[in-house]
Batch of 4 targets.
Target 1
Amino acid sequence: MEWNIPTLEELTDKIWRCTACGNCKAAWNYGPPPEFGEICPAMVEFGFEGNAASKGKMAFARGILDGSLPWTDDLLQDMYQCTVCAGCQSQCELDHKPFIPEIIEAMRRKAVEDGVGPMPNQKVIVQSMRSFNNPYQGPRRARLDWAKPFKKAGKPLKNIMKEPAPVLYYVGCTGAYNLPTRNVPQATARIFQKLGIDFGILGEDEICCGSTSMRIGDAKAFQRVAEFNMELFKKLHDEQGVNTIVTSCAGCFRAIKKDYSLCKDYDKMFEGIKVIHTVDFLYEMFKEGKLKFKKEVPWKVCFHDPCHTGRHLIKFEVDEDGSKLWEGAYVQENLEDCLYDVPRDMLMAIPGIEFVEMERIRKDSYCCGGGGGCMTGFADWAAKNAAKRIEEGLSVGADKMISICPFCHYNLNAGAALLEREQTLYDLVELIDMALEEDVSGKTVY
């Protein structure tokens, strides 16, 4: 398959559009009155201009391109100490704006191509992808362990490789292998069974979406698994009747919707297939009256917006030919794909829920600190950053924090552990599962 993954050299013009104004270092609300808050996790922690959102990273990119900045351990560390959360992209108002995360990841791709990247702690991901097709060093036989309770209860999950179904639940590696986050796929499967959804899973045949590889610059590993997945999805559509792929993982959702679209065969491979996040899928059923909450969940909660279901899905309009403003001008952004309203609407519909907002939300949300390979490369910093976000939730009086990403689930709970608090982060599907009391047949599930 042919891919259009840009090199650092191909992004040269975009790199030079940065004026180093520094607005990217903070989340601005122009008011009145004007306010600002921290937005770049690396700048907050390290305070060095090289870590300062896109301002510092673009200086690195220019030096790498013209050869004045050779690869050193310090340069690599500063380059990889970035969650690629796109917080800086939200703040930039220059023609540089639409390309910032891609430039940062292109630097990492060049580091990998030059044989110096990724970081030592992240090389376990590279090896694990080669050996196991997942970043967790998890053997294929263990990928289905999360589903054992369903088989034990006499409600085994359909293997979509053997039995047809219109809906494929693509679990993702984090939900399958990361023990603390197995509640997410388990809650999702319980909900689907209660609602009578005809769905199946890939089980041991599922492999990584490739998101983690892409984030750390290993484009070859990403392409390998992405091509396998696209061919498999097309086969499932043609032979098993799959027309909808549902995923609970923000990283998988972003990868399949956005990263896979860099393949020139994307439209052909996904013809007749809808890719949707679990919460959006359930929201459609909620609007149709097929999902009704029967049980109270008496919690006071806030919502954490994951980067990969928010800022990373913003569509940017660029004036390519100069017909609107000037050639290459950033025109405007479209937030229609961002999951901002849907999870909040679902939360507030659950009986007993009292919903409060944190200060930094939606496209100005503060990253949990786990993305961009940082949860593996810089685990201590990732947890420390997560603790800051947990504290923000506590400051508005929330008993629990809710999100829709297994990565955020794991890392924010690691942050809560640093604060010596009990589990504070729940996935929204866990709450939906709590509020659904009976299955479609009217029999009590619990």
Note: The first helix runs from residue 12 to 15.
Target 2
Amino acid sequence: MSTAEMMARRTRLLGPNVSTFYDEPVALVRGEGVWVWDSDGRRYLDCYNNVPHVGHCHPHVVEAITRQASTLNTHTRYPHRGILDYVERLTATFDGDLSTAILTCTGSEANDIALRMVEAMTGKRGIIATDHTYHGNTTAVAQLSATNPSRYGGADHVRFVPAPDSYRPLGGEAGPSHAAAFAGAVEDAITDLEDSGVGFGGIILCPSFVNEGFPMLDKGWLDPALAAVRKAGGLFIADEVQPGFGRNGSHTWGHQRIKAEPDIVTLGKPMGNGHPIAGLVTTPEIMAGFRNSFRYFNTYGGNPVSVAAANATLDVIEAEGLQANALEVGNYAQDGLRRLAKRYGDIGDVRGYGLFFGAEFVRDRETKAPATDYVTALANAMRHRGVLLNKLGVHYNTLKVRPPLPFSRENADLMLETLDDALSALGPVEDFVVGVGAA
């Protein structure tokens, strides 16, 4: 079946506007480690997919899933030791009193529960998020995404604050001025929620602000904003669905990297290396408040097979030293991007942490005008050269590199060499014409 035939069938069976990547979608049929193959047998270096966190089809995870699936799979109304052992192991990676958990199937569900925890503890529904974030696709959490608004109107209990940007900092300067400007926006949103009668319950943030373009923020950067949240009696939800499980290299969790203290931490995508498991971690006090306020049950959340996959994923992270690898290879790859930036003036900024990094492309380094169409063409050019990556950020002009954690120096070299070739073929931004030379 050709790609065109598959896409036509997909539209007929799944409906219109189902998202795909690239100008020519890649129909994948197999994966191993950091490599994937399409239906024509072509191999691609995967620099994008963070769901297979420890590598596509890792044999240890596959074996754990197979063994448990052939033994027992049921739901959590039947006590099972697997979930207890896993939660005990998981919560040991957190600081303070974050020692209890709920397991779900998706990060969306986890964030949905977190919002209910905020309501249970504060008696208020008002929530703050940034204006360029994504926290899931249930009705409740979809309302937190200003970039994908409902045609039927927004939610009166949500307020948006400007996304932090270390390249174009709020307040005009990086560091404390940037942090103070963000905190001021949070304070204004709190006041507005209180004055509206909705009331302020909490704030939800990805501690690495991934969808916002992963700005480089100093340790303690969030302190002024979180001080305002605490003063108003609100809770802080840290959405670790993307930056968690050692991807940042220096710490297990993104909030630890910037020294922020959340009340609730939500988890997802990489947790089971592709098996659908997610969850949240919180304090015993908040957990009790939620359990006593809401009746909650999840048929598949925390089932023995999903837990086996999650536990095996932790095994691999530890046994193969993947957090340390993320730090070492991530720094190496960023150095390579900085070398390219010396040759290509369209690269305005290189930033990242561990194995989540990238480069922001601009039309002019002085004005920092975003080169969005150029980056779209660049991602497609890389796809046609056998390297999968993509873009994000407030202006969608930041190349995003987010590979599985076994990504090596050799893999980074291939990615950088291919990027060099693609940039040379595309030419400078000032000469770029949309649709010309993209491959």
Note: The chain has two domains: 3-54+322-431, 59-319.
Target 3
Amino acid sequence: MKFLDEYRDPVAAEKLRQMIFRVTTKPWTLMEICGGQSHTIIKYGIDELLPPEISLVHGPGCPVCVTPVELIDRAIGIASRPDVIFCSFGDMLRVPGTKHDLLTVKAAGGDVRVVYSPLDCLRLAENSPDRTVVFFAVGFETTAPANAMAVWQAKRRGLENFAVLVSHVLVPPAMTALLSSPLNRVQGFLAAGHVCAVMGYEEYEPLADKFQIPIVVTGFEPLDLLEGIYQCVCLLEEGRTGVVNQYVRAVRREGNQRARELLSEVFEITDRKWRGIGLIPQSGFRLRSEFAAFDAEQRFPETMVEISEASVCISGQILQGLKKPHECPAFRTQCTPDKPLGATMVSSEGACAAYFHYGRFHRAEQVSLEVISKP
């Protein structure tokens, strides 16, 4: 496929692999931020093509995974109301709350619908004036502009029967929390290209300076990641810090200015709890007071009960790059995608789900460069 196959070229991958081997002289620990990047790494065995000195660890890169159980329970409560049409992207329907998930609500007769854009909900609200249409607004900065536009349009069009349940989380505060931890072992980051396509990478530059680390904005295909790893290792070996943009075909330093302006108009920054990690200050979005009429949490106030992960689950350590999925005693036994215990197994983009799906540390497989060329 044009514009895709060239980023899975095994000949180019082999050249990059050799370049990484030539430049690596010391042990380095790198973290990829995005769950999509984690899946590419595991699917194509990229981590197993690298020098033994390089360790890749998986970060809190799946917004579905880190949505707290309390908010899932609130979504389930709202979706169960007969006067509500509850809309969501499909990846949220099987994320478990305390007792069940949104798919269970749908099976029991709740009006839960999968949409492909939050703007679909506006048409639904116009056609259903006697019910409230609620959209579950989950994601990093990547999905936030579309959700902000839906709220902005709803206000402009006077759609009083539309609301959003906001669970947006932000990448830089999570990186700050990880780097500030006394247990941190990450020495360089592969930043998420889609987040930076919206926000740019100016806000990563103070992070790189403060913590004296390299950050490479990276794409999602095998060659993107291999080149990003090479660039990050080069910076580490040279003792340099700062931000480098590998994903030049999609990312500019300033990001998408119009999207950022819309985000600033509709949202403000707030503290957010991350499933598996806990509260991270100033790490999420909430609606500004001018748009409070569209806030589902205010429209449907309910008491939120604090929930903790299963004691056997180590997803918090995995999200912080301290452990890998196969080191969890519950992995593949008590914890599976059908019955997940922790954050990193609840979504198809989670690290544990990737290890499970691609059979990592489960069956013996030969990793070869030829696999990179497969779709």
Note: Confidence is low (pLDDT under 50) at residues 362-371.
Target 4
Amino acid sequence: MIYEDFASAQSFFLWSTFAVALVMGAVVNKTNFCTMGAVSDWVNMGDTGRLRAWVLAIAVGVLGVMALEAAGMVNVTSTFPPYRQTTLPWLEYVLGGGLFGIGMSLASGCGNKTLIRIGGGNLKSIMVLLVIALIAYFMINPFPGSDKTLYSTLFYPWTNPTAVALSTTQDLGAMFFSDNVATGRMVMGGIVGVLLLAWVFKSADFRGNFDNILGGLVVGLAVLAAWYVTSNIAVNADGEMMSLQTYVQEWDMYAPADAVKPAAAGPLASQSFTFINPMGQTLGYAASGFDRTLLTFGIMALAGVIAGSLLWSLISRSFRIEWFASAGDFVNHLIGAILMGFGGVLAMGCTIGQGITGFSTLALGSILTFIAIVIGSAATMKVQYFLMMREG
């Protein structure tokens, strides 16, 4: 996908993201694919159907990345965010994942589900989105008139020193096969992907549930599609094929005088779906008066999922306006949104961003975050059930 000018390449980068997200949003709404619901079904009813759908999406991502990376068709090492970085801030992954898991249980869904609910008419989720966006924005961006962020003030001094410096990138292939990383990534991707698929399809109930299979398959393929598109868009700069990120880094040398330069090059790197940091990006974009230089993959993904969910809600006539049932319901959603905002940025992703996109790279941090999210969510549901039984 080579373009003769940056504007055309960036336009395809953004609108292809919206298109894939639109399909994913519609299918997630149709199939009720939900990571929080997956944990809830498992913990409260012993039903693993939606959990297997989530794991199917992970398996599709892992096996797809393994094949595409081996063929040289995707770049999942120099990405935004950097899943395969050479440091392992394990405490941030575990703490952030745990906070996110608690938060999504209180707020009735993860970041992706929040967007799906908005598309279906849930006004509660608009509040959740705004709170997450505000926290996510200031976790990364300094307060007005200051150089301090929420992250630098509340977390960096005590979480960053625990980070472990690695001799390789943190993906399992590089860590276990440092002498032959390419082979290692194929071996580990094949082993992990096949084991996950075997567990998923071991259940006869799951094999007979069309919606769960469709939901997991489409979400996994959407993650792969984003990896492929964002890894393969290039600009022909005087005969040299350059990625969008590299082109912006060399802007003064290649860009015409009337071209509009993006605010940052990082968000133009290869990437796939995640939803917490993009909520903060969307807030910044809106606050700037919709400055086109701030338009990113994440913002288009967020808009696409909402639009896809809305489309399916209208087609299926399931669109319903929903508000808080009580003051307690409001407080739960507020606390949940706060925890998801902090946890999602601290862990560098959510149940989709780390639980599927990051996991597809076999980054150890993504796997730790996935486990921490599940444990945090499951523990919260156990506590909620205990309190409900005691009150009853």
Note: Residues 2-391 form one domain.
